Amino acid sequence: MADSSLPKTLNFNVGVLGHVDSGKTSLARALSSTASTAAFDKNPQSKERGITLDLGFSAFTVPLPEHLRESCGDRQYDSLQFTLVDCPGHASLIRTIIGGAQIIDLMMLVVDVVKGMQTQTAECLLIGQLTCSRMIVILNKTDLLPSDKKQAAIDKMTKRMHKTLENTRFKGCPIIAVAAKPGGPEAPDTDEPQGITELIDLLKAQAFLPRRDPSGSLLMAVDHCFSIRGQGTVITGTILQGSLSVNDTVEIPALKVTRKVKSVQMFRKPVPSAMQGDRVGVCVTQFDPKLLERGVVCTPGSLQTLYAAIISVQKIEYYRGALSSRAKFHITVGHETVMSRISFFNRVLPGKANGDCSPTSQEQSASSFSFDWEFHHLDEYLTIQAEGGRGEPQQWALLEFERPVTCPPLCLVIGSRLDSDIHGNACRLAFHGKLLEGFEDKNYTETTLPRLKISKDKQKEGAVERVTDDYTVIGRNLFKKETNLQLFVGLKVTLSTGETGSIEGGFGQSGKIKIRIPEGLKEETKQLLSSSSKKKGKGGAKNESSKSEETKPDAQPVTIHLNFKRYIYDPHKKMVQS
Q1: What is the separation of C-alpha 243 from the centre of its chain, rounded to a whole number of angstroms?
Q2: SS in 3 state form for 245-275?
Q3: Where are the alpha helices (DSSP H) in 37-149?
């Protein structure tokens, strides 16, 4: 049993995001007193360059602020621990940032006061908008500004940042200026950081009681793994959902093994259990730590391994490229990033034309989807406004992964083009959405996809070659010689003169068809057809035909229109007419 007299600490996760070299790690270091095992880049590559390559974690503890004492109710905490999640700013490491952003309560966006917003700063801001509700902007490196112009430069940049944030969910958020490491990373540590005490006060004021829920399956994001001889293997990470206690059995899905929890620590203090939002070290029975550097640990059997998925999808407005069906994107889902082929579709609502399909994303809950609905294939994502200019119509996408991914249900999905130029200034985040349906069967194309009713509209056009009788015409140019005409028997067609008929079957060997007109041909249609066939007739001297052409305007051929739709994933390739 835990001793209830032990001081209780509320953990609050603060993500430190920003462009590479904006001084995020120095800021975390200045703020921090206790560095957790992961902290400050254990990556040799990072040490050389002074750049964070992995999510570094560190923490500092303050007495619980007064405003939190009231909101904590029965849960008696006496201190507040800020866990700083230092996310990399390297563009190629966007996937790591997305991995860290899922556990963040408040985001600190670090901006170099001299350079202002840069491409990655904007990408970090976007990720923040998708994953976090509060933000503080930190203008770092104020020591680089000449002292006589310092305040003016800070004011100018503050104004610019407020303008940038105006149309985001962080409108009006606090902006504070600091110098985390005066003199830069090489300088001796004698110079005191500036503005850090004020920043800690601001963090305390901005902290809130995060929503933590111990119920449901355990899902823990792992960031490090190492062995302790004679003890077992220690996994460190953050609990994204559920809770965990000593003696629980947990699954490591990447290795397809289960292990027993021997002990749990939070910042080097042993605890009997931990829950959502907590940063923990968990010692389990031995396995090779090299096999699990990054990934997840969960309640046995609670995660799905997917070969494909259906997601709700929304384009990120700063993405300049096209979102086309059949294109490939990097998909970050759960804690993995994998290449995937994408196909977009929207819903056909009863009584509406195909072009006017889905309700807007705002109208329809983004997490709704049903295999019973009728959908319409889109060649590319629709950015047109829905009726009345109320946002884009609700759209979905089928993702087909190049390798299976393991992830929790209903998780956030982000699509990006991480292969585009790292140093270019274009946004590489393309779309985001929610995972709604996962396909766990390797043969999903045969088992599940046929249930997905996505249709494509098809049109064919031909011409009436001649009339056989008042109720039958022969059509040409609708089909190729090799087409299996049996598939089309019974389908309705319309003539350009207004009559409707149906295809009775083939005529001859060259792809011509026989069309039955149940109401019979109109008189004027017969005249039109007889005049055009007479003109083609062999008899008559040249001057005669020229005379008839003078008196009669050129006869237009009568065209035949066939409209139908085909369900993309229907194994029988059936044609359907509404």
Answers
A1: 27
A2: ECCCEEEECCCCEEEEEEEEEECCEEECEEE
A3: 44-49, 66-71, 94-101, 119-131
Cβ neighbours, 10 Å, residue 354? 16
Residues in the chain: 578
Percent of the chain at pLDDT > 90 equals 34
Report in angstroms the alpha-carbon separations of 187 from 181, 190, 191, 264, 477: 8, 8, 8, 39, 80
Q: Which two tokens stand for residue 136?
A: 């503080």
Alpha carbon of 412 to those of 115, 286, 364, 475, 522: distances in Å? Answer: 32, 32, 18, 53, 60
Give the tens place of pLDDT for each residue, 291-304: 876 678 999 988 88
- Residue environment code for 120-142, b if the CB has 16+ CB neighbours within 10 A, otherwise e: bbbbbbbbbbbbbebbbbbbbbb
Other C-beta atoms closer than 10 Å to the C-beta of 423 total 6
Q: Could you give the angle at which helices 523-536 and 542-551 cross, rounded to 10 degrees? A: 150
Q: What's the half-sphere exposure (Cβ side, CA atoms, 13 Å) at 212?
A: 22
The beta strands (E) that lie in 272-383 are given as: 273-275, 279-284, 295-298, 304-315, 328-333, 336-347, 375-378
Is-above-0.85 flag for pTM?
no
Residue 475 pLDDT level (bands cut at 50, 70, 90): very high
Q: How far apart are CA 482 and CA 485, in angstroms?
A: 9
The helix, strand and coil proportions of the chain, stated in percent and rounded to the nearest 5, come to 20, 35, 45
Burial of 297 (0-12, 13-18, 19+ CB in 10 A): buried
From first CA to last CA, the distance across the chain in angstroms is: 68
For residue 546, how many other CB atoms are within 10 A of its CB?
Answer: 10
Going along 175-319, which residue ranges are E strands?
175-177, 219-228, 232-241, 243-245, 249-252, 257-266, 269-271, 273-275, 279-284, 295-298, 304-315
pLDDT in tens, 523-549: 988 888 887 666 555 444 444 444 444
Determine the number of helices (DSSP H) and then strands (DSSP E) in the chain.
10, 30
- State both tokens at 207: 């902290």
Q: Please give the helix or strand (H or E) that residue 59 lies within, else none.
A: strand 56-63
Map residue 481 onto helix, strand or coil: coil
The span from the CA of 328 to the CA of 322, in Å, is: 12
DSSP, collapsed to helix, strand or coil, labels residue 572 as coil
Separation of alpha carbons 574 and 560, rounded Å? 21
Does the structure show a pLDDT above 90 at 37?
no
Q: What is the largest CA-CA distance in the chain?
A: 117
